[in-house]
Amino acid sequence: MASQTSTTPTNATPSATGVTAGAGAPGVLGTATASEQHVSSTWPLSPHYYYNSSVVNPTNDLSKNPLLNRIGLEPVKRILLITASASFWGFMLGGVIGSRQSGMQYLAENAHRLPKNMEGWYFYHKRKNYRMMWGAFQKGVVFSSKTGAMVGLFEVLEASMDFYRGGADLFNSMMAGVASGAFFAAINKLPRQSSKHTLMLGAGYGLVSGGLQDLSSYLKGTPVWYLPQSLKERSLALKLPEPEE
């Protein structure tokens, strides 16, 4: 009981605190080092990314690095979720377009042989609905594949740039948008003017999306290197409760 209720000197360093507590009370080693959580630490990544250890405990596992997160998700989860969402909405958009195109095509193919009675009109609209559903499915699969592939490529490039530079920011998103636009222009063999327009759209999309994500992360307390230092320090002013004596 005497060893468990002993207090640590206030002038001891965190490392010394851990050694003293471990020598005197080996059973309470995990709780005796609570003051170490107030020591600032640096992630072993880019030199301008810092994170307070009172917010998150540093680790060498880069997949757990919060500086690589966007919209509150880890890179792998974010890529899968956004790609699946883009594929779904691409399927919905393609379904609408394919349904309309199939309906118009059916009307054009049968304009010279319109039904003349009630039963004929019933089967006419029945076959038309089948054609429209099948056309919606075909066009939906095509749009879903293309949209999912492009959005997935953008997300993979963005996450790769985040990993390489040591953190997520709008410049990584902008570069990923430009690279995705260049890939799209090359695959579709667009002319020079159209390729230039595609690159500008990709850069604009990356800049806007990355800027909004940086703003959201900064307001939540995650440091953003290009923002003022004083505001960054104030955003990280999160402290754990002092250990009870």
From TrEMBL:
One Pfam family it belongs to: Tim17
Annotated region described as Disordered, given as residue ranges: 1-24
Transmembrane segments: 79-97, 170-187
Domain of life: Eukaryota
Keywords: Membrane, Transmembrane, Transmembrane helix
Name used for this protein in its record: Mitochondrial import inner membrane translocase subunit TIM22
Annotated organism of origin: Linnemannia exigua
Organism ancestry: Eukaryota, Fungi, Fungi incertae sedis, Mucoromycota, Mortierellomycotina
